[in-house]
Input
Amino acid sequence: MSVGVLDAIWLTIKLASITTLFLLLLGTPLAWWLSRRRTNFSAFVESIVALPLILPPTVLGFYLLIMLAPQTAVGKFWQELTGSQLAFSFSALVVGSVIYSLPFVVQPLQGAFSRIPHGLLQAAATLGAPPLDQFRSVVLPMCKRSFITAASLGFAHTVGEFGVVLMIGGNIPGETQVVSIAIYDQVESLQFANAHRLAAGLVIFSAALLFLLYRSNRQSFWRLPE
Amino acid sequence: MSGLSLQLSTPAENGFSLDIDCQLPAVGVTAIYGPSGSGKTSLLNCIAGLKPAGDNSLIRFKGTTWQSSSEFMPAWERRIGFVFQDARLFPHLSVAQNLEFALKRRGNNNETSFTEVVEWLQLGKLIARLPESLSAGQTQRVAIGRALLSGPQMLLMDEPLANLDHVAREECLFYLRRLRNALDLPIMYVSHDIEEVSQIADHLVLLENGHIEAQGSLLELCSALDTRLSHEEQAAAIVLGTIQSHDAQYGLSEITVAGETLFVNQIEAAIGQQQRLRIPARDVSLCKTRPQDSSILNIVPVEVSEIEETGGSRLLLRLALGEQYLLARITRKSAHALQLTEGDKLFAQIKSAALLSNSLAETTL
Output
């Protein structure tokens, strides 16, 4: 395998890992809030979060590109903060990936949170647990599987994205050229053997991840390991 | 003030609101009794801080303000133990871990130790199990243990026995009575079952449609004529008696109430022990002279202290037996035939008297 291909694989893993981290940090409170509120505003937020599921990635990528351009407020702020341009950078990929994969993290978490009976949290409160403690010691362990599902889906979906990355990241080897882009690149330059290896690798990785996920989810929701 | 003072007015919710202004004792068992929908659970939730009472509400417990117009102490700071009707054990934690959950968060209030609670409630064999594998009765016992281990200043119990079958219920009542006697812990006990209440309560609060109809000691309130309680079909007076002797030949136990002797089905209880007797109003009949040839065993002299015309064919009498009171429900026709008036000295024939709090004698465990 050429250095470029290895770079692409490493970049993909790095992007997916960082994105997953941000997804959990952002998605958890968001999913919690959505699971406890039933207002028009929360329904609006919910639909915005779900938007990447149906929009073509190019649409999302296009607007992100415009938003992150150097002359916009976000772009300028980033430039002042880091001294480098945001668009066509690895950071832009992270921003795009987080938005693009958000529903894959928020939806399983929201579903799990809304299945936690409110009465259990009341019980925890009467036993002296403040809200954060209730979340940490009741909600988190009861939703452990959903967190694994959410993180895995977020990770896998980031690995599999193409359109958004192409729009806002371009195709800079070592900076924004992830595996999916690299495959496209290899095919364009008729390097079919390389394209084959990468494509097969992605298929095997994704299938294995989903298999593990579905197998573990078949076990009971909150059974302790014996 | 040393007790629990409550001034609650909750915002109306589906036409229902709590409107309460009272002072409750912070000793013994206070039963909150009322039909479903009378606001019993809402009242407990307000006391616990699980549901904010209205803006002008005031809740003070033993000199500490839990809620006022300017303050609201959250539930997790009130140090109350709450036993819910549906137990609410944490399903992902074992029995031991559920108990430890309470233990870890109670701070320095270590009056009750883990081992003590496990022993009192006989949780030893359950300790490693998950809640889903417990029976309803076991589940509720663990819930009681967990509440006790949180180092509470007060225990709130919301119909803790409602989901249990008869056997589990009696068993749980046994443990509750034992705890009541062993611990110096005020308990607020919500129930819609007067027999359950009669067994463990010291103080009684009658709740009706969001407000307090009456409150007082259990013995007094059960025989008061001006409450809904004495007008229920199963209305009964509760009296205190002392076990005198057991008569194995006839299978009876002799109990004295205000110097008078009553016989009940033989029970396993030590001589000299105090027992509560429940005497239904419909099982008490009256005679002007002491019947000499009646098959009814329990005949005691009483004085009519109050008569209430309830309308309809029957009326209700409150009868003094020494310092204690019985209720009798007789037909208006008989009352007129006997020309009953207040102050009359009569003989009450008691057809049945049920002993409370002895369904599970301590010796059988």
